[in-house]
Every structure is written in structure tokens, then in C-alpha cells.
Amino acid sequence: MVDPYTYRVGWSAEDEEFVGTCAEFPGLSWLDEAEGEAVRGIRTLVRQAVAEMAAAGEPVPEPMPPHGTLMG
């Protein structure tokens, strides 16, 4: 399955760990000592959130269009 969401990983000096975030789910983040684990963690968290939202009949955020895509 393709994951259509937009992820970012950066270093948090405050937490002294990598933080993974998802643009479409601004309230979610994942901290980890390893950059790759921060990516895996946030992706897993987003999948869980999408499944829970769908099961509850809540609207699921639409993926952002790819960078450089023109909307018309």
C-alpha cells in the first residue's frame, strides 16, 4: 500500500531526539533516537489514526498534492 501523506523528520534540540511529523496530521509526532525509527513511528501512528477515523465515520484528511503540482 502506498502511503500518500507528507512526512518530515528533523532534530529536536529540546528533546535531543529526532522528531517525525506529518503535514496532514499536525497534532501527531513521533520522537526517537534514530532518524529512521522516527519516520517509521510517525507513519505507523498516522496509519492508526486513519484507521480509527475511518472506523468512527470521521473524515480523513486528504493528502497534499505533490510539490510543483498545479491545482486548477
Please provide a written account of the structure.
By secondary structure, the protein is of the alpha+beta class. The chain has one helix and three strands, in the order βββα. The protein has a three-stranded antiparallel β-sheet with strand order 1-2-3, covered by helices on one side. A hairpin with a 4-residue loop joins strand 1 and strand 2. The longest helix has 21 residues. The termini are far apart. The mean pLDDT is 92.
What is the compact description of this entry?
The protein has 72 residues and is of the alpha+beta class. It contains 1 helix and 3 strands; from the N terminus they run βββα. Strands 1-2-3 form a 3-stranded antiparallel sheet, covered by helices on one side.
